[in-house]
């Protein structure tokens, strides 16, 4: 996990003007300013050991300056000396309780050294001082996850996931948090009703996440033996078979799901793809339209396959309409532009075909 350290440190210390003791002689003050200037230069050159020594020298003559203590803690942090960063950051925060940056890096340093209770306290303090800061949300969520509190972690990680740079890391931890939360819920339910359909369903999901496909299929079957009209189990089994490219077995499960819930969007979508691959465009179109009616979570994919089905039927105008919608919803999917190129070629529209060809070449090289 990476913190945007350089930008953060600039934000935290942009107004760093250390106080000068009024009783100090001019020569001492000048010497102190020179030490700070040399320390800053050493930081810029990534010579963090030298910077730390210079800050220590300054603090000997000018103790209890929170901004300099914060700077010393950040230098230790930058050199991955997290235990060394803790005392100066804690002292800086004690002297100036408004230093949200000290609280943030103190919390991260506690996290890095496995002191999760202290990390949580420091990060909550930083968040109270500067609400809505993505880095603090990220590290607080990470800390709560490390403390086996996945449900509490989720809200903070979701906030951090909206950040352009932190998003991928936050999303990865969110997956872990959701899985851990589901596993915890499974354990609680299993104690209350060990042979319920819901317990088997939750166990199947847990086994799926851990890559135990056969075990998951068995648990889905057990769930259905307890509750034959349980919605979602056949669909989940179908998806497992689909991922293994056992398409005929997958289709049987999706059909079983539709007998329980005719408007299940995923079952309709997958069966539409299945019958399209089998050459039955009419049947595929009916199923794909049902997926749209059920507000599918994958509209671009549905319109893509509808476009192929209409192209197979030589219904060029409808194929164009469907594929344009697919391209609008997934503009970087090169295959949609390639299909539109074919449509325009058949319609005798060379200029539009060339435009789609250019888009296909642009996105297919990414």
Features:
366 residues; single chain; mainly alpha
Plain-language structure description:
The protein contains 20 helices and no strands. The protein has helices spanning 5-13, 26-44, 48-61, 66-78, 82-95, 100-112, 116-129, 134-146, 150-161, 167-192, 197-209, 213-226, 233-243, 247-260, 265-277, 281-293, 299-312, 316-329, 334-347, 350-364. Helix 15 (265-277) packs antiparallel against helix 16 (281-293) and helix 17 runs antiparallel to helix 18 (316-329). The model is unreliable at 19-29 (pLDDT under 50).
Pattern of helices and strands: HHHHHHHHHHHHHHHHHHHH
Head-to-tail CA distance between termini: 27 Å
Number of strands: 0
Largest sheet: none
CA radius of gyration: 30 Å
Strand content: under 5%
Number of helical regions: 20
**Oligomeric state:** single chain
Shape: flat
- Global structural class: mainly alpha
Average pLDDT confidence is 89
Helix content: over 70%
Q: Which regions contain 5 or more consecutive residues with pLDDT less than 50?
A: 19-29
Structure summarized in a few sentences:
The protein is mainly α and 366 residues long. The protein has helices at residues 5-13, 26-44, 48-61, 66-78, 82-95, 100-112, 116-129, 134-146, 150-161, 167-192, 197-209, 213-226, 233-243, 247-260, 265-277, 281-293, 299-312, 316-329, 334-347, 350-364. The chain has 20 helices and no strands.
